[in-house]
Predict the 3D structure of the following.
Amino acid sequence: QVQLVESGGGLVQAGDSLRLSCAASGRTFSSYAVGWFRQAPGKEREFVAAISRFASRTYHADSVKGRFTISRDSAKNAVYLQMNSLKPEDTAVYYCASRPFFDMSAITSPGEYSSWGQGTQVTVSS
């Protein structure tokens, strides 16, 4: 099991950028696939992006493709979400989560992840 802590959220204007970080402790983080999800008030948790154990594969939701980029630094036990050209509809609490494998049939489903961080708020004003 890994422990995850997100950071980097904040209040920005439309068109701005933010980089979220997901720091891990516990077992070797590099052996886990990691996903970013977000949840806006009154809405279900939504998949944003995922990255495989050795960063050989990534997958981004259509709603963020071309604007957000997931990456990881195994030496720092961290995964990042670079968010550019932010829109008001990106406003949500962002969570990182881990699972053992990068499985395309599972990575977009919150229920397939075993560990979660506490979330970081991202608010984009128009």
Q: What stands out?
A: The CA atoms of residues 95 and 119 lie 4 Å apart. DSSP finds no helices and eleven strands in the chain. The longest strand covers residues 18-26.
